[in-house]
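Q: what does this look like with zinc ion bound?
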Amino acid sequence: MAQQHKSVRVWQKLDVNEVRKHLLIIDDLYGSCANCKQLGLNYLKDAQCTGCGTEFRYLATTLKAPGEVARILGRIEKEGLKLAVLDRDDFERAEAKDALNDLFK
Ligand SMILES: [Zn+2]
């Protein structure tokens, strides 16, 4: 059967702290490092943060339109980057829950 590569959102359990260390939060082409808040990073060019040197493995975006997310995924594929795209709201919700759990430790 011929391969059909399409974009599908997957729910996956991730270590929030680990993700934050390797996360680039983007608006469009540019974004900021979740680890050190460095601004103006380009996810196609900056494989590592110019501020703290962390290697990016995740991108978080607030874009919801399937077409816009598809464009990001297309660019990542074209450049041969190893970046997973997360929904920023999902991530922030997971982070908030994490902070809440900390209160009860
Ligand atoms: Zn950084």
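Helices lie at 16-21, 66-79, 88-103. Residues 33, 35-36, 38, 49, 51-52, 54 surround zinc ion (CB under 6 Å).
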